[in-house]
Design a protein that fits this description.
Pfam families: Hydrolase. InterPro entries: HAD-like_sf, HAD-SF_hydro_IA, HAD_sf, PGP-like_dom2. It comes from Uliginosibacterium silvisoli. This is HAD family phosphatase. By secondary structure, this protein is α/β, with parallel strands linked by helices. The chain has two domains: about 10-20 and about 95-220, HAD superfamily/HAD-like (Rossmann fold), CATH 3.40.50.1000; about 25-85, Orthogonal Bundle (DNA polymerase, domain 1), CATH 1.10.150. The protein is about 45% helix and about 10% strand. The chain has a five-stranded parallel beta sheet with strand order 3-2-1-4-5, with helices on both faces. α8 (about 175-185) links the parallel β4 (about 170) and β5. α1 (about 25-35) crosses α4 (about 70-85) and α5 packs parallel to α10. The chain is globular. It starts with 9 loop residues before the first strand and ends with a helix. About 45% of the residues are buried.
Length: about 220
């Protein structure tokens, strides 16, 4: 099915799993961190964390493994492994991400990022992926009170671009992120990564496409 889009005044991108093939990296490193600390881990728990900020993700871990689970130690060890991976440039850029960003630049359509990742880490990831120069603004997980699926982060990204949310196109890979952008009254396209659209997302009628190439073609 061909994707049909209204030409947006701005495009707001999620980062992990949408621009960067980082969710699989994070899932692997959480498992590695837990193993190195001799802690229980379950990939299903990691999948529940996709699209959420660290505060909400830690709540998922504690709910799964109990209130006495050393989530701070897990987070610290994961951070060490992840930062090393970021600096090494070992997080791949998703297919057609660069092509789409360059096309939007040619059309003079401004772009922003709305990510659950904290600003320092988001900037580092985009810098080492050589993508940061394409964005006029970033809205990050440590800059909002309520993370995805609340609309605050997408509303913040739109305000930093100076464009009404209803005139923005949001691109997301996670169910929580799609709900966030829909609640912000944006045109939304889902590009699923490690998670498929859930039943609630399908009921919202949000189009799901196989890659960013579909968005590139639809914007024309």
């Amino acid at each position: 099915m061909q994707l049909h889009l209204t030409r947006p005044d701005a495009v707001i991108f999620d980062m992990d799993g949408l621009l960067l093939d980082s969710e699989r990296v994070a899932l692997r490193l959480f498992a590695e961190a837990a193993h190195s600390l001799d802690l229980k881990w379950d990939e299903a728990v990691g999948l529940k964390m996709v699209g959420l900020n660290s505060r909400d993700s830690d709540g998922i871990v504690l709910e799964a493994f109990g209130a006495d689970y050393p989530v701070a130690a897990l987070r610290e060890r994961f951070g060490e492994l992840y930062e090393t991976t970021i600096v090494a440039g070992d997080i791949p850029v998703k297919p057609f991400a660069r092509d789409l960003l360059m096309h939007l630049e040619a059309l003079r359509i401004p772009c922003a990022v709305a990510t659950s990742t904290r600003r320092t880490r988001a900037e580092a990831k985009l810098h080492h992926a050589h993508l940061i120069q394409h964005f006029k603004a970033l809205a990050c997980g440590d800059e909002v009170l309520r993370g995805k699926p609340h609309p605050e982060i997408y509303e913040l990204a739109a305000s930093r671009l100076g464009i009404e949310p209803s005139r923005c196109l949001a691109l997301e890979d996670s169910n929580a992120g799609v709900r966030s952008a829909v609640s912000a009254n944006m045109q939304v396209v889902m590009v699923p990564d490690v998670l498929k659209p859930d039943a609630g997302i399908r009921m919202l009628g949000v189009p799901a496409v196989s890659s960013l190439k579909d968005v590139l073609v639809a914007i024309g």
